[in-house]
Amino acid sequence: MNTWNDFNSADDQNSFNLIPKGTLVKVRMTIRPGGYDDASQGWTGGYATQSNTTGSIYLNCEFVVLDGPYAKRKMWSLIGLHSPKGPEWANMGRAFIKGILNSARGLHPQDNTPQAQQARRIQGFADLDGIEFVAKVDMEKDQNGDDKNVVKTAITPDSKDYAAVMGCVTSQPTAPASKPATTAAPSGRPSWAQ
User: Which positions ≥6 away from 65 have C-beta within 8 Å?
Assistant: First the structure.
């Protein structure tokens, strides 16, 4: 029988469990262009989207997990650029983008050297399309009231877990950093044998 007529031998559907809230993952962010430009704001290239209902302007972003147990999983979030209700959403969006740049470019948030300041500048939203960084998985409700994973926070190099997730560390240390690796006595006998 034709495989497109008999589905008894088809694989079962994958039912993906949500990624636990608070999980740190390395992601690649892509922006789904919405065609909205405002050159006076520096919003060019058609990356921004304007809501027909609220008038808010945002970046419609997809985040793909790059490795680990959740590799290839996707999450979607909006990065606020403007809200008719006031500056809070735009300020949150700017803070998130700054965090993304700090994470992607290995900058400590307190680093205000000229090099770090330059690294936090972008030519346009195209610079963010495809950027890779460490993200903290969060949870919110979708339009049906079901839980969904979202990304609202970028993890920066001042976090103890940043290097391992970003891939800067190839192996985990075998001994705690606070103790010397070897503590042999001058006699040549190991410390436990003294």
Answer: 19, 25, 26, 27, 71, 72, 73, 74, 75
The CA distance from 15 to 124, in Å, is 38
Residue 128 is inside which H or E element, if any? Answer: none
Q: Are 164 and 67 in contact (CB under 8 A)?
A: no
Domain map (residue ranges) of the chain = 24-169
Q: What is the pLDDT along the chain (194 residues), one digit of tens a residue?
A: 667 778 888 777 666 689 999 999 999 999 999 999 999 999 999 999 999 999 999 999 999 999 999 999 999 999 999 999 999 999 999 999 999 999 999 999 999 999 999 999 999 999 999 999 999 999 999 989 999 999 999 999 999 999 999 986 433 333 334 433 433 334 444 443 44
The secondary structure element, H or E, covering residue 55 is: none
Phi, psi of 44, deg, nearest 5: -125, 170
Q: What is the DSSP string of 1-37?
A: --TTT--TTSPPPP-PPPPPTT-EEEEEEEEE---EE
Q: Which of 164, 149, 162, 152 is nearest to 75 (CA)?
A: 149
